[in-house]
Amino acid sequence: MESCELTHTAEITVVSNNHIYARFSPQEKPDDCGGCALAGVCGNSKSMVEVEVSAPPGMIPLGPGSHVRISPRPGARLRGTLLLFGLPLAVFLAVAAMLRLTELEQGLAALISLAAAALTYAVIHYLEKHRGKPMWYVCEILNP
């Protein structure tokens, strides 16, 4: 079983064939989110956050209303930081360097570089929504 270093207590809201969704309040433990690269996305939210979670095979079947302890997968913070900050920056710099070799006007080259970085965010968002494995997983069932 994976380690549960940062956990939130969540309520299962939807259980379908391949998907389990859970809702939690990031305000429950705001200090735990301080080192997370994505703290600005959910940590400042005043409302509940709903995420897709995975449960280990053989775990007691969960139903809506069940309370569980969920945690992000190990390495999720580093992966989030690299995807949301490193990759768009690398794309921006690479496009800017390639356009610098052409004799394109600097202002236009800067706009194209920014558009490429913005497109990188759109691609990351699309791939994250359509990937197979949820970032969160169930560590413990509090009540079935």
Can you walk through the features of this model?
- The chain has one domain (8-143).
- It has 3 helices and 5 strands; from the N terminus they run ββαββααβ.
- It has helices at 39-42, 76-101, 106-129, and strands at residues 8-15, 20-24, 49-54, 67-72, 136-143.
- A hairpin with a 4-residue loop joins strand 1 (8-15) and strand 2 (20-24).
- The longest helix is centred in the middle third of the chain and has 26 residues, at 76-101.
- It is elongated, with a radius of gyration of 19 Å.
- The mean pLDDT is 78.
Taken as a percent bin, the fraction of beta residues is 15-25%
* Gyration radius, in Å: 19 Å
Strand order of the largest sheet: 1-2-3-5-4
Number of DSSP helical runs? 3
Strand tally: 5
Which structural class do you get from the secondary structure elements? Answer: alpha+beta
Overall tally of structural domains: 1
Mean pLDDT: 78
- Please mark out the parts with pLDDT under 50 across 5 or more consecutive residues, or reply none: none
- The protein's oligomeric status is single chain
Backbone shape: elongated
How far apart lie the N and C ends? 19 Å
Give the ordered list of helices and strands.
EEHEEHHE
Largest sheet: 5 strands, mixed, barrel
User: Which bin fits the share of residues in helices?
Assistant: 25-40%
